[in-house]
Specification:
Blueprint lengths: L35 E6 L8 E6 L2 E7 L5 E5 L13 E3 L2 E3 L5 E3 L5 E4 L13 E2 L1 E4 L2 E5 L19 E10 L4 H8 L4 H4 L8 E6 L4 E9 L5 H10 L2 E9 L3 E6 L15 E9 L5 E10 L3 H26 L18 H11 L15
Antiparallel strand pairs: 1-11, 2-3, 3-4, 4-9, 5-6, 6-7, 7-8, 10-11, 12-18, 13-14, 14-15, 15-16, 16-17, 17-18
């Protein structure tokens, strides 16, 4: 294999002989859709500290006030542009290091140490934020339509989140998401020639759900192992949220050996960070229902291990498709309709103010 880099360099290659039509939002590195984006682990932002983060071309600052709550603002001080991430937390406000202009959690200028306040109102923009799964999340928009989502089947339940780490992709995160519901690739990549029944719906809160089920074939070692462990039916469900986060639920009331004791469903959640390079970083979490006591701890650890093993089982095959890929939608077939549906869903999302210059549209 030739040189492979984790960047969107291939977007500009072969334009003269293989034209590429950019999408309004889907796989467009110049557009950041409204949605929840992970900033970093909660434990890294101690009380009374500030830190800046970069989402594509948008630099943000998060600070934890004396009350323990996190606030997120645009990072550049409106005075002379210093990074507020280098500032000092004072109570529940953040003071710029350079000239000590001080801002509250709404971004309002509430104090100036050097000189006088400007005569006109000055503020930096504030963004909604949440802490969930041990991470700080910021919303790219004025008002989120819902909280940081969870996996299908865990709604309304307290969960334990095991952070698996961050991975830098070879492509934009929309391509990774589309791979999760690309039904045709199960046969070509994973040697699982399954005819899936697909049920998809898009909700008013910018989330979308894909529910898939089918019968495992009798040929191929993966299919035979699957039939032995959980029976002939394979089922999973995917929830996407704002084109930036989502989760997969593996199994629909599975039973050991198909007819034995009930097995727990497995839940993998991810949040995506688009990078300046045009590719994305993905933060992955295993979610389990919160259980108490030593036995609950052991069950959670076992469920995390099985989910991690399943992820590696599938990811090792998928990752080989992405180096130097220049993803396109121009020649989709009937077998690719699930991918076309996903791209349509993403293209209908609202571009946020975090977006850079668009590279074009259909």
């Amino acid at each position: 294999m030739g040189e492979v880099t984790r960047s969107a360099h291939t977007r500009e290659e072969n334009r003269g002989t293989q034209p590429l039509r950019d999408q309004p939002v889907f796989n467009n590195p110049g557009v950041v859709a409204e949605g929840w984006y992970p900033l970093g682990p909660s434990h890294e932002l101690r009380k009374g500290t500030a830190r800046s983060y970069l989402i594509a071309q948008q630099r943000l600052v998060a600070f934890r006030g004396e009350d323990g709550a996190v606030r997120v603002l645009d990072a550049f001080c409106p005075h002379m542009g210093a990074d507020l991430g280098n500032g000092k937390v004072q109570g529940n406000t953040l003071a710029c290091y350079f000239h000590q202009w001080r801002f509250d959690g709404a971004g309002e200028l509430v104090g100036v140490k050097c000189g006088e306040k400007p005569r006109h109102p000055v503020k930096t923009r504030a963004w909604p934020s949440e802490e969930r799964y041990g991470f700080i999340w910021a919303f790219a928009g004025e008002r989120p339509k819902g909280p940081v989502p969870t996996c299908i089947g865990l709604e309304g339940r307290e969960v334990h989140a095991q952070y698996l780490g961050a991975t830098t992709l070879y492509a934009h995160h929309h391509v990774m998401m589309a791979g999760g519901i690309d039904l045709a690739h199960f046969g070509s990549v994973h040697d699982l020639d399954v005819t899936f029944e697909l049920k998809a719906k898009v909700a008013d809160d910018d989330t979308a759900e894909w529910r898939l089920s089918g019968e495992l074939p009798t040929t191929g070692w993966r299919a035979r192992v699957g039939r032995f462990l959980v029976g002939k039916t394979i089922a999973y469900a995917v929830r996407f949220a704002g084109g930036s986060a989502g989760g997969i639920t593996y199994g629909d009331a599975p039973r050991l050996f198909g007819t034995g004791p009930r097995l727990p469903t497995l839940h993998l959640f991810w949040g995506c960070v688009p990078l300046k390079s045009g590719v994305s970083q993905v933060h992955a979490f295993v979610l389990t229902p919160r259980r108490g006591g030593p036995l609950g701890w052991l069950l959670n650890r076992l469920q995390v291990w099985v989910t991690f093993a399943l992820l590696g089982f599938l990811q090792d095959d998928d990752v080989k498709a992405f180096p130097n890929m220049r993803f396109q939608l121009s020649n989709l077939t009937e077998a690719d309709q699930s991918v076309a549906q996903f791209a349509k869903y993403v293209n209908a999302l609202t571009p946020s103010a975090w977006s850079g210059v668009r590279t074009g549209s259909e």
